[in-house]
User: Which sequence fits this backbone?
């Protein structure tokens, strides 16, 4: 344990000041940023310590720190890979396999696949190892470190050997017989055969045009055969205009060590080749061990004309082609940005170049993913009115099955098919269709959308509503500023039935056309024919493969007098596609830079729109309609709670499930900075926020529509004052579930001025305490008024509930003659038998579970650790959770703090860290204590101070020991050693 000692240079882990969440308390961007820096800093510090321990050969310490980092940064693939490698090094094969499985699910990474194969082999599953290894070798170059392992797996699985292809066309491997190579252009076609005497060997130049390489030994395929040569050659990169030239990066993910070559082609065959060797250190990528190389080419060294940027195999990279005029745009001074792109004054746009014609053209660019395209087109066929042309533009799909599917549709007359010779991106494919519009209204429709009945008629209604409306975009689950239910976080795509249900609700709600959007969204963008004729096509010269082209179109149309509006009467599902990783993100940033150069002020206009959020009312109306539909004729119950999570939120969830099982429709009401937020677990909503007191009537109206028959108070901290009278306004009864001592303690937990249990003094003593250290209520109220209000509200409730007898007795002492029903939150008779854990280390380990703040006993843990260190006792301490200052505990050399955990993980953490005895160090009386149940679930006995529900439960069950509150750390450590 002493290895965990941290130097004085380690960064502080003390969190920023607490931020009160609730009515009238705005959490600033600065507050959020401070908390995020603290969270990120802890994860980064743990990762650095883990890496340092691994480099020093200290496996157990590396595992602890990397495991902690992985819990703090669950989506970070770099941390996950480091943890998986540490688990492999420590021989923790099952854990390593699970970690590598999760990593492979989030990113395609050869190290993760190879790690899975190693773990399977060591777990006695050679066939599983060979399956994984074969898949990895077929798509990735084999690093030297895996050659020996590949031979072991092949031998254990009875394979004829293994093979792999490096990025330069070199074939590596090991075989038991004579080797045959065969290059193929497709999965079924024949190819060129070459005999070879062994490994290594070089492929002929024709491999650059081949799709597959079969490698056999005496007619038997080797592990890794057939090799997917397209995957081996695949590159990832981006090129963008920059001041004085072009810049970007490029690499080959299947073989990160392969040095990439950049080809630049201009007019009349002019070309140049660059070998890229300089690392690009600022690329935003989730792929661990990525090795992109950067480049910059000055303008005067570039060929003339429109420039194409290709990798060494002739494949275009993201951002290509680039027009030299675009480069000049970045050489010019930046124009001052107006507040927003200007719209020409007047109610009519400039007369169109071509008048609007009758009819519709629906344009669907297609490239990959046949299942999504088929679902999209089927929904279009099922909902299309007569007289609508459907044009699909095949943007040189690499999927033969997709091309054949489109050929069949075209032959049957269901679609007009256009096909590109080479993949040129969304703008180019869309323009093929736009050129054929001939004055008709058009819809640009992504191939990963699902459209409902009435969608085209709804869009037509919007375009026809006013002559200046140039574009209309529907609501969708994934449409940026037009997303629903949330515009802040990703929404899961609805299935076709739910899409139709949402569309039907949208069609019945009031349609507002007085809100101007800064831009339409290209996933489903309806354009009036005369607006298209006047504005022109999408710019292919600026936006390459896509992202931003429709925004540029809308800015140009805005300048001509056209408006862009939300078709909130329509909902179209957007399933979403495969992420293109760092190149996609880089392309989006590139195109946003270009967009702001072309239209200064665009980004500011979008941000201003987001801040105003004029579509909030439409989203809230849809939220309300969905709640009413889901509720039907059921009666409802509404539960009020704070916004701080924890045990209160858990109790609310469990009671809500019980109410739902009983046939009630359940709502929860949480505080918001401007009022309150209504939530229903059965319906995903995000805009049921009501400003108080201004929108009190709307809140009451919705609750009455939902037939709320009673309220259940769990916590009113953070709520607007008027929420205390909600039951009167609705004329319904209310029940109170008592979770803590907020009814007679303004500091909620009975923690006094010296961070100790206050002893529950008289009201006068409480007033002195509040004057000295303040209240946690978020309001200013005198102790007499506070206690009078609590007495009135408790006596006015239909029923009072508390989780423990100790809590009920404390409430009764302060508010005599009240009846409080005791409802235990867990069944203490159902826990497994207590067992003393086998000691895994020289020192006994004492465990604490949960978030350990001041009232939960942080100072107790620190005092125990310092005493154990000073006297060199055979004691260590583990916090399975987090504290306000982990660093101070680490400094003692006697404490491990694992970091935040998920409920499913806690048993394995306790087991893996060999905790022998649990300890609830709370220095104030708990009303229940879920951490005690976790300790008992793990089969451990537990120690607590002799107060509150924790001591009551230990005494009743005999599952541990209680000690006097205030017992000195030295005496307490002696007691723990003797157990």
Assistant:
């Amino acid at each position: 344990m002493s290895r965990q000692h941290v130097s004085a240079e380690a960064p502080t882990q003390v969190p920023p000041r607490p931020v009160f969440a609730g009515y009238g308390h705005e959490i600033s961007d600065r507050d959020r940023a401070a908390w995020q820096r603290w969270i990120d800093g802890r994860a980064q510090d743990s990762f650095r310590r883990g890496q340092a321990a691994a480099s020093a050969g200290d496996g157990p310490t590396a595992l602890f720190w990397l495991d902690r980092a992985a819990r703090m940064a669950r989506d970070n693939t770099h941390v996950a890979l480091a943890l998986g490698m540490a688990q492999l090094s420590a021989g923790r094969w099952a854990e390593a396999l699970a970690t590598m499985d999760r990593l492979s699910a989030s990113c395609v990474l050869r190290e993760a696949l190879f790690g899975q194969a190693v773990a399977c082999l060591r777990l006695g599953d050679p066939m599983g190892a060979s399956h994984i290894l074969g898949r990895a070798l077929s798509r990735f170059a084999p690093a030297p470190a895996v050659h020996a392992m590949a031979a072991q797996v092949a031998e254990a699985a009875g394979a004829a050997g293994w093979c792999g292809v490096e990025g330069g066309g070199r074939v590596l491997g090991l075989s038991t017989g004579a080797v045959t190579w065969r290059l193929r252009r497709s999965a079924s076609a024949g190819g060129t055969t070459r005999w070879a005497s062994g490994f290594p060997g070089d492929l002929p130049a024709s491999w650059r045009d081949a799709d597959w390489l079969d490698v056999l030994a005496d007619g038997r395929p080797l592990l890794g055969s057939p090799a997917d040569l397209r995957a081996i050659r695949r590159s990832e990169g981006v090129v963008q205009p920059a001041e004085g030239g072009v810049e970007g990066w490029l690499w080959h993910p299947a073989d990160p060590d392969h040095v990439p070559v950049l080809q630049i082609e201009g007019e009349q065959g002019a070309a140049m080749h660059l070998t890229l060797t300089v690392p690009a250190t600022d690329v935003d990528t989730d792929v661990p061990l990525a090795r992109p190389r950067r480049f910059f080419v000055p303008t005067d060294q570039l060929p003339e004309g429109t420039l194409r940027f290709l990798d060494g195999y002739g494949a275009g990279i993201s951002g290509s082609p680039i027009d030299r005029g675009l480069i000049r745009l970045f050489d010019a001074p930046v124009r001052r940005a107006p507040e927003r792109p200007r719209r020409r004054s007047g109610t009519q746009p400039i007369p169109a170049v071509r008048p609007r014609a009758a009819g519709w053209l629906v344009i669907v660019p297609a490239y990959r993913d046949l299942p999504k395209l088929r679902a999209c087109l089927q929904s279009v066929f099922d909902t299309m009115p007569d007289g609508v042309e459907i044009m699909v533009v095949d943007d040189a799909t690499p999927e033969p099955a997709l091309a054949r599917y489109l050929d069949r549709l075209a032959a049957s007359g269901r679609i007009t098919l256009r096909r590109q010779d080479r993949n040129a991106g969304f703008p180019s494919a869309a323009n093929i269709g736009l050129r054929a519009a001939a004055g008709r209204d058009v819809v640009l429709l992504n191939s990963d959308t699902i459209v409902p009945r009435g969608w085209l008629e709804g869009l037509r209604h919007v375009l026809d509503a006013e002559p200046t409306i140039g574009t209309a975009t529907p609501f969708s689950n994934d449409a940026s500023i037009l997303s629903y239910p949330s515009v802040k976080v990703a929404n899961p795509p609805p299935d076709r039935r739910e899409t139709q249900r949402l569309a039907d609700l949208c069609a019945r709600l009031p349609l507002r056309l007085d809100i101007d959007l800064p831009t339409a969204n290209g996933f489903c963008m309806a354009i009036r024919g005369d607006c298209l004729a006047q504005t022109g096509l999408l710019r292919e010269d600026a936006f390459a493969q896509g992202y931003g082209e429709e925004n540029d179109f809308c800015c140009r149309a805005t300048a001509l007098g056209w408006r862009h509006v939300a078709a909130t009467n329509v909902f179209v599902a957007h399933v979403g596609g495969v992420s293109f990783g760092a190149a996609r993100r880089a392309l989006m940033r590139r195109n946003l830079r270009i967009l702001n150069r072309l239209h200064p002020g665009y980004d500011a206009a979008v941000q201003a729109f987001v801040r105003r959020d004029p579509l909030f009312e439409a989203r809230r109306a849809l939220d309300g309609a969905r709640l009413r539909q889901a509720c039907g004729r059921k009666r409802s119950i509404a539960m009020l709670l704070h916004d701080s999570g924890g045990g209160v939120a858990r109790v609310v969830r469990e009671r809500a499930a019980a109410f739902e099982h009983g046939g009630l429709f359940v709502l929860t009401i949480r505080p918001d900075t401007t009022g309150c937020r209504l939530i229903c677990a059965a319906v995903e909503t995000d805009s049921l926020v009501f400003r108080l007191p201004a929108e009190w009537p709307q809140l009451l109206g919705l609750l009455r529509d939902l037939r709320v028959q009673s309220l259940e108070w769990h916590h009113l901290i953070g709520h607007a004052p008027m929420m205390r009278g909600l039951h009167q306004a609705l004329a319904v009864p209310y029940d109170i579930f008592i979770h803590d001592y907020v009814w007679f303690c303004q500091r909620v937990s009975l923690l006094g001025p010296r961070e100790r249990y206050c002893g529950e003094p008289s009201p006068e003593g409480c007033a002195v305490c509040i004057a000295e250290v303040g209240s946690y209520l978020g309001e200013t109220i005198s102790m007499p008024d506070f206690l009078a209000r609590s007495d009135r509200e408790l006596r006015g409730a239909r029923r009072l509930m508390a989780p423990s007898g100790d809590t009920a007795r404390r409430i009764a002492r302060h508010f005599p003659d009240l009846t409080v029903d005791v409802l235990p939150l867990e069944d203490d008779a159902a826990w497994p038998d207590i067992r003393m854990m086998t000691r895994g280390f020289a020192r006994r380990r004492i465990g604490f579970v949960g978030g350990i703040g001041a009232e939960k006993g942080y100072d107790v843990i620190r005092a125990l650790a310092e005493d154990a260190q000073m006297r060199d006792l055979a004691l260590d301490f583990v916090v399975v959770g987090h504290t306000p200052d982990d660093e101070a505990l680490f400094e003692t050399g006697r404490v491990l703090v694992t970091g935040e955990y998920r409920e499913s993980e806690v048993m394995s953490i306790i087991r893996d860290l060999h905790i022998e005895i649990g300890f609830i160090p709370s220095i104030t009386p708990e009303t229940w204590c879920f951490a005690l149940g976790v300790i008992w679930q793990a089969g451990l006995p537990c120690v607590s101070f002799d107060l509150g529900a924790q001591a009551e439960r230990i005494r009743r069950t005999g599952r541990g020991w209680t000690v006097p509150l205030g017992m000195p750390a030295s005496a307490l450590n002696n007691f723990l050693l003797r157990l």
